[in-house]
């Protein structure tokens, strides 16, 4: 894969975006950023013809990637001259993947997000509640958040306990005993880093460097490594939405066009082929934001569709298979069979 310009659409407090920001910093990959508001509307994203509402969004050349679980492996392929961060042995790869699933699919981060301190200034803004209701697909209220707090704390305790009593218990510095932080560290530190750094999220009598010395020391070590890497690399260039869109529209493709796996059960069930109109959206949050376009390729890991920017330029949108749903889009009936 040839290295093309990398642009990250994100906002600084987004914990998911930090996964990518940290990866880029630790690997020393040059990139530009297009800083976004922390809620909709996001005209800079609409300017790409993208309906997906979540952050971060990553472009490499003219290809646009959503979901950090696809973005990180794509970045791993860039700049082969820079040491990679991903695991190399099958056993380490398994740990890396299982940790990602534990934190994201296993719900550790989702539970951490329920611990937002109730006095956050953001909670004074009624638009925030409306926005997060659209994001999660259910009403979002402070009363509900207060009620579920004890359950969320129980789940977070499981996360802290796991790392303190297993992987970090032998005194290693990094999860895979590497010399420097690896992708496996990013895959699990981000949720604990975020929640422990959020004043008022965790009760100090149950979560502290005294209660979890190994976890807190690991988080601190990780932050120091990222801070040092950012100082080495310098600040990314900031682009306006229009500037970023122009760069993307003028770029060449990051990846060669691939094909549709005609034996894939979804392809068979939906009667799809290259060029079919399809709709795709996440299955967890932000489900109401569907992207509609021509199917370019589909394999076990990834779906690629062709979409148009409002300027009429073609770009390719990549989503992972995991956590996303794709259906044929029937133009006459104006919709995919219930997505
Ligand atoms: N699975 C997605 C989750 C992304 C996500 O939920 N991002 C949050 C920000 S941390 C978001 O988009 N929240 C709603 C918003 O900002 O509009 C990923 O890995 O990228």
UniProtKB/TrEMBL annotation:
Entry protein name: GST C-terminal domain-containing protein
Species, as recorded: Trichoderma asperellum (strain ATCC 204424 / CBS 433.97 / NBRC 101777)
Chain ranges of the GST C-terminal domain: 89-248
InterPro entries: DUF7962, Glutathione-S-Trfase_C-like, Glutathione-S-Trfase_C_sf, Glutathione_S-Trfase_N, Thioredoxin-like_sf
Record-linked CDD domains: GST_C_family (cd00299), GST_N_family (cd00570)
Record-annotated membrane-spanning stretches: none
